[in-house]
């Protein structure tokens, strides 16, 4: 992969911050966009997601790109982890299939992986007969 395919950083906007009543996702989105714009990075986009189901590990951040493994990281925050999130974005662009070992991930991202999902790769269409789902066998009487 040449690093020009579209890549996305997803940030949960529902995660609650450590201070009561705060939701830090929007600040993290703004900081990520500002830094990517400053760098002139036109490959990575940043999007907010209403919930990434990582509620016990706020703030959750995901990475996805077509044909690549996707990641969800938790327990991230703007003050401590912005540089590592951006570093991983640079690394992720260079990974042909998105797959990397935890030791290759920067900082806290080494130990805060909540999920790594293999890429959905195109497959040949199934023959019509094989695509039919059959009912489970009934026990003999």
TrEMBL record:
UniProt superkingdom: Bacteria
Name of this protein: Metal-binding protein
Signal peptide segment: none
Pfam short name (any one): DUF1636
Lineage: Bacteria, Pseudomonadati, Pseudomonadota, Alphaproteobacteria, Rhodobacterales
Entry-linked Gene3D superfamilies: Glutaredoxin
UniProt xrefs under InterPro entries: DUF1636, Thioredoxin-like_sf
